[in-house]
Amino acid sequence: MPKDFKDLIEIQHYDTYHYARIVDAMARDPMAYMHDLSEMLSGDGFDYFCEPFDKVSALHKFASIVIDRTFDEDLLGSPTLAPSRSQVFAGAPLYDYQMHVLPVENAFEALNLPHTTFVEFRSARGWPALKPGFERHLYHARRSPCVECPQHESLPDEYNEYFGELQLTGEVEELCDRLAEEVFFVLFANRSFLYDFNHMMASYVTSYASFSSPDEVDPNSIFTSRKDGSSRLRRADTPDWVKTAVEFRERGRCANCKVELGTLRTPIKRAEFDHMVPLAEGGLNDVTNIQLLCHICNNEKGAQVLAPRLLYERWYPA
C-alpha cells in the first residue's frame, strides 16, 4: 500500500460480522459466557487490557482473543468438507476435493497471508500422506474410532498439533489481529455495543484492581488508591487521536442531546470528552470508552453511568 495511504485499512469482510456477533453477544450477556470470559480476562495478564489509550484498543485485543478461540473451537468442532477458496473459484466438483481445508486455512487465504498449510505441516514431519476421501470419515474419527478407516484416528491430534504450531510461529496471531481490525471497524460505530463492552470490562477492572497494590509514589503506576482503600485506573490525558476518532464517530454532535458542536465552540456549545463508564466504576482509559458530550450534558451526567442514546444521523436525508 502506498505511503500516502498509511491511514487506510483494507477490509476483506471475511466472516467479519460472524466474529462481531460473537463479541457483541459476549458483551451483552456476559453471564452466559462467564466461563470463557474468566479464562480470557482473569489473572495477572489483565493489565494488557488496561494500558492507557493504546492504539491497539481493548476491543482489538479482546476480539483477537475471541477469534483465536473460535478458530480453535472450529478445529475441534463439527468438521466440514471445506474446499479452499481457490478450489471454489476453479469450480472443482465436490468429489474432486482431495484435502480437508481448515477454517483457519481459508481465512489465511482470504486475507492473502503467508502460512503453513496442514499438508505442508504433515509433510515436514514425514507423516504418511492422507488418502483421497479421508475427509468423509473425519467426523467419526473425531468422536469415536471409525470402523471404516481406523488409520484416520490420529487426525484430531494432528490437527491440534498443527494449530499449536501456527500459534507458536505467530501466524495465527497475525491473522487474528487482522480480523480484529475488521471487527473494530464494524463495532466502533455501535454506541450501544461500546456501552455494554465497557461495562463488561469494568467488572474485570474492578476485580483486578482489588488484588493490585498500587504504589502511589510511582507516577507510572496505572492504578491509584481511593479513600476507601480500593483501587481504580489512574486518569490519563485523552490524546488528540482519540478525540478525532470519537468526534468523527459522532459526526460532531453531542452523543446525548445531539446538538451540533461544529467548529465554532462557545461556552455553551463546548465539546467535552467523557468516559462512558467512569474510572470510578472500573472504566478504562480506552478509545472505546470515550464519548463526545456538550458541556451541559457532561455536567448533568457527572460521575453517573448513563445508557447511550440510540439516535444516529442518517447517511442521507429521509
Brief descriptors of the model:
two-stranded antiparallel ribbon, mainly alpha, 318 residues, two-stranded antiparallel sheet
Describe the structure.
The protein is mostly helical and 318 residues long. The chain is built from twelve helices and four strands, in the order ααααααααααββαββα. The chain has helices at residues 16-28, 34-41, 58-76, 85-90, 103-110, 118-124, 138-143, 155-169, 171-187, 191-210, 240-250, 295-301, and strands at residues 223-225, 231-233, 271-275, 290-294. A two-stranded antiparallel sheet has the order 1-2. A two-stranded antiparallel ribbon has the order 3-4. 29% of the residues are buried. Mean pLDDT is 81; it is low at 77-98 and 139-143.
How is the secondary structure organized here?
Elements: H1 16-28, H2 34-41, H3 58-76, H4 85-90, H5 103-110, H6 118-124, H7 138-143, H8 155-169, H9 171-187, H10 191-210, E1 223-225, E2 231-233, H11 240-250, E3 271-275, E4 290-294, H12 295-301
Antiparallel strand pairs: 1-2, 3-4
Helix pairs in contact: 1-3, 1-9, 1-10, 3-9
Termini gap = 37 Å
Largest sheet geometry:
2 strands, antiparallel
CA-based gyration radius: 24 Å
The structural class is mainly alpha
Helix content: 40-55%
Shape: globular
Low-confidence stretches: 77-98, 139-143
Q: Note the total helix count.
A: 12
Widest β-sheet, arrangement of strands: 1-2
Secondary structure: number of strands: 4
Query: Helix and strand string, N-terminal first?
Result: HHHHHHHHHHEEHEEH
Strand residue percentage: 5-15%
Mean pLDDT: 81
